[in-house]
From TrEMBL:
Protein name: V-type proton ATPase subunit F
GO cellular component: fungal-type vacuole membrane; proton-transporting V-type ATPase, V1 domain
Membrane topology, record value: Peripheral membrane protein
Gene source species: Talaromyces rugulosus
Keywords noted in UniProt: Hydrogen ion transport, Ion transport, Membrane, Transport, Vacuole
Cited InterPro entries: ATPase_V1-cplx_f_g_su (IPR008218), ATPase_V1-cplx_fsu_euk (IPR005772), ATPase_V1_fsu_sf (IPR036906)
Pfam families recorded: ATP-synt_F
């Protein structure tokens, strides 16, 4: 696959997060639902009742199956629940960015991207 082909069709953001984070991003205009018999949303709202397997399935869908996602935003506290999947995902696209939530501040020590950067610089 050429360099351009890897990202030219990736025109959407996706988000996996708590209700406040997803609502804010949807209000900002990132929401998208595919057409056709299998409606696919580009977001997953996670709460305390959400099964970890559902989070893993959404992560897999946004990072492996869908080729139209350019950036996946995930609340850091949600990423912690599927940390092995997040850390093992090393493809350039979609970019996976961990974001804070209202109730869970951002911790740079847990961010998988920053961990990789530190390893590159030998820290």
């Amino acid at each position: 696959m050429s360099g351009t082909a890897a990202y030219k069709d990736r025109q959407f953001l996706a988000v996996i997060g708590d209700e406040d984070s997803v609502t804010g991003l949807l209000l900002a205009g990132i929401g998208h639902v595919t057409e056709g018999p299998e409606l696919q949303r580009n977001f997953l709202v996670v709460d305390s009742k959400t099964e970890t397997s559902a989070i893993e399935k959404a992560f897999q869908n946004f990072t492996q199956e869908r080729k139209d996602i350019g950036i996946l935003l995930i609340n850091q506290h949600v990423a912690e629940r599927i940390r092995p999947a997040v850390e093992s995902f090393t493809d350039a696209f979609p970019a996976v960015l961990e974001i804070p939530s209202k109730d869970h501040p951002y911790d740079p020590e847990k961010d998988s991207v920053l961990k990789r950067v530190r390893r590159l610089f030998g820290e």
